[in-house]
Please model this.
Amino acid sequence: MASITFTILCISGPAEGVTVFNSQGQQIWHISIPERWTANVAFGGKHRNKLFITAAEAVYVLEMK
Model:
């Protein structure tokens, strides 16, 4: 049996959203948030398929595929 592990890094901060990098350090995605900064990100939900993003004025929830 073989398994594949996919690792990503999500960075929040004053970039009006969250920047996502793959395990090789390449930027693969940017999630735009309509606020001046984001503070934190975390995966949650029953199947850990929801990304919670805290920002200056609100908490955003994105359902991941």
